[in-house]
Every structure is written in C-alpha cells, then in structure tokens.
Design goal:
By secondary structure, the chain is an alpha+beta fold. It is built from eight helices and eleven strands. The strands form two sheets. Strands 1-2-3-4-6-5 form a six-stranded antiparallel β-sheet.
Length: 257
C-alpha cells in the first residue's frame, strides 16, 4: 500500500486535515488537527515494525502529561483507571510508556481512528474538575497508606469513641497497634486543614495520647493563616504526596512500633 493510499484512508476515516510526512525508510509522521489542552498537537508516527505497520506516540503522550502531573500520579487512582480503560477499549498497548497500535489487515483508517480516540481519552486526565482531582488525591492518599501499613492496623475515618461518640471530629486514618497511635489527615484545601486543626485542638483538650501527621495535596495552595494554625498543633507535615512517597513510607515504617 502506497503512502498516498494510506493518507487517503486516514482522511476518509478520521479527518480531511490529516497529512503524512516521510521521515525515513518506512517511517511517516502523521499530522492531525487533534490537540492537548495547551494547544500542542498529538504526536503520532506510522512505522513498520517487523512485518507490520504500527502507530506509535513514541512516548510523547505520557511525557506531555508529566509536564503538569507527577508521573507517579498517572499510575494510580482515578487517573490510572481512565488511562487503563482507554487502552483496553481501543486495543492500544503501553510498552514502558510508549503507546502502540499494530494495524490489522491494512485497516489503516480504522486503526488511526482508534489510536486518536485512545490518546484523546488519556488526555482527559488533564480535564478533571477540582472535585474530581480532590477525589483522586484522597484515593492516592488511601492507596499510599494501605501500601505502607498492614491493613489490620488501619482505621479510616476514625473518631474518638470515648470523647466524641457522635463522630464530629474525624481523623482520615488512624494507625493503631502502638503505645501512641498515629493520626493522619488528608489536607486538600483550606476547609479540610481548618477541620484538622479543630480536631487536633479537641484532642489536645481531651489529652488524647497520639502522634499527628498532615499530608497535603499541595501545601502551597493553603492560606498562610490556616497553615500557621495547623502547624501549631500538628507534629509532622508533608507538602504533597507527589515526590514524597518514599519519605512518607519511611516515616510510617520507623514509627510503627
């Protein structure tokens, strides 16, 4: 099949604005009108791999997403579910960050349609609403704690049954099994940070014997006054999950006994 025939198939099935540019032997850059949120175009290459033609992004899609998101955040929680679903639905393979779709039986147009749809679905992770992002942070928080501490020592959404039977002052996660349990707060915004501060002040008044830890979604987004009040009563803080996973695991591991 000639490049002209392939280009015609692409245009017929996907968009009249598609063009091919040969960049070497049996290798073509596929220019499409489809873009990331910031206006950069998707990177798609058509090349022969062995006996088959294959579409590939050559690792560009995940690299582009990593400009705004931590790489680790793409591999867990809601974002990971979005990506896995897109790959599964459109039959795309993730080979160590490079996305590939072998073209079956010279169905070039259909294959490009599926590949573009998969890439666009994956880029949806950048369109998560603030509420959805908050949900992702809480999922990431929970996943990190669960991967660091035996499940029989965890209680999520814990409250003090003696001093707070209605459950008005909630701890996002309590690690038990030691003389001084660890109370961990997931801090995604000013409101949750204020709530954690109030809870810790209550615990101080009740003489609750515990350690306290705050893990922020992004500490820089917390107002200075709100952060200052929390700092007065919270023993340990981590400014975000991204980039601090190993520090958090090490801290928890060192304080489990």
């Amino acid at each position: 099949m000639t490049s002209e025939t392939i280009e015609h198939s692409f245009r017929e099935k996907v968009s009249a604005e598609i063009n091919l540019l040969q960049e070497g032997l049996n290798r073509y850059r596929v220019f499409t009108p489809f873009q990331f949120e910031d206006g950069d175009h998707l990177v798609i290459v058509l090349k022969q791999m062995g006996q088959r033609w294959t579409l590939t992004d050559e690792g560009h899609t995940f690299m582009h997403l990593s400009y705004d998101l931590e790489w680790q955040d793409l591999l867990k929680g809601t974002r990971q579910k979005i990506i896995s679903n897109a790959l599964s639905v459109f039959g795309v393979e993730d080979r160590e960050g490079e996305l590939l779709l072998p073209i079956p039986q010279e169905q070039f147009g259909d294959a490009l349609y599926s590949f573009v749809q998969a890439l666009l679905k994956i880029t949806d992770v950048t369109y998560l609403s603030r509420e959805r992002v908050r949900s992702t942070f809480l999922e990431d928080f929970r996943a990190l704690i669960c991967s660091s501490v035996p499940p029989n020592r965890l209680t999520f959404n814990w409250h003090d049954p003696v001093n707070d039977s209605p459950g008005s002052y909630i701890v996002d996660c309590r690690i038990n099994g030691m003389a001084r349990p660890i109370d961990i707060f997931a801090l995604s915004n000013d409101d949750r940070t204020r709530d954690a501060t109030i809870t810790l002040l209550k615990f101080e008044g009740w003489n609750v014997n515990h350690h306290s830890v705050g893990i922020f979604e992004d500490q820089e987004r917390i107002s200075r006054k709100v952060l200052a009040r929390l700092t007065d009563v919270c023993e340990k803080q981590f400014s975000s999950i991204g980039g601090n996973e190993e520090r958090i695991r090490k801290f928890l591991g060192e304080n489990l006994n």
